[in-house]
Design brief:
With about 350 residues, this protein is an alpha/beta fold. Helices cover about 30% and strands about 25% of the residues. The protein contains eleven helices and 17 strands. The radius of gyration is 20 Å and the shape is globular. The two termini are about 20 Å apart. The mean pLDDT is about 95.
Length: about 350
Amino acid sequence: MQSLVCPGDHTVELREKPIPQPGPEDVRIRIQASAVCGSDLHKYRQSAEERATHGYDQLTLGHEGAGIVDAVGPGVLHPKIGDRVVAYHLIGCGACEYCRAGEPGFCRDIEGFNWVRDGVNAEYVVIPARYALPLPDDFDFEDGALFACNVGTAYGAARKAGASGDMTLAVSGLGPVGLYTVMMARAMGAPVIGVDVQSSRIELANSMGIDMTVNPTESDAVAAMRDFGGGDGVHASIDTSGNTQARSAAIDALRPHGRFVEVGLGHETVYALSTPLNMREITLTGSWIFKLYEWEDLLDFVRRHKLPIKSVISHRFPIQDAADAFGLAESGTAGKILFTWPAVTA
């Protein structure tokens, strides 16, 4: 089968790998849609030496994928061959307190895609059956790939921020996760101001109906966010950029008792704040993807609000053009980038 790997030094390449076979309690998924995530770029930017040292250069890249179950291992009753599923990429032991609670991301024995096991940018992927999430017929495979990380991550972050019509919210970083966070928060009733340095992403946010946008290279973003919140600051802010300055600005823009939610991954976690947190009693919290127990709620929320999640997609590439796709993603100017795979035929 064809499999996309990342040797490092800003390169990706297709390699031939054996088709994996499902073991006990596993399923094999034939991928029908997958995507580039911002966190994939951290791997893309690593040196070849670093990736080779850890063996990451041999693993299939990607953690946003959906497809059709085409084989099951011994002991699997659900899902069945032919079922449409989304691959949940935080694989836990299944037995610890966190896994039993539907939060395998906190499992001590976690096996993440492209850091312990092969990911989804391949023709086939094998995962434990319990992490093959059912994809209802009213969503297609592209929807499934979007749900797998970006849409689900945005949903979890907006909920942690307490998005509602009773508060104001700022979102820093208007890449795909940021745009989906805006979409989710506004559907929850919150007025939202978005912050980004890329005019193309600001334009996309404006086209989606965001309440206000600001470019910190052109004006004072902290002042704009505070004004948007009525002068004292916004009630909550979410950073999806991972940028140190953006994080600090998002916290500075909060009113007393405000809440900051960190979503974006950066090379360092540094807060250079103009006002001490204790004097405003600010709450800082992290947010990582969505929990397994939120899956049906996530689907119902998108369905109920008729959210146009595909509107964030700006480019589709055949997997053979993955190098071009990653080059575009690295530029920071695109929306969501998806890979297309040969359709399964009866």
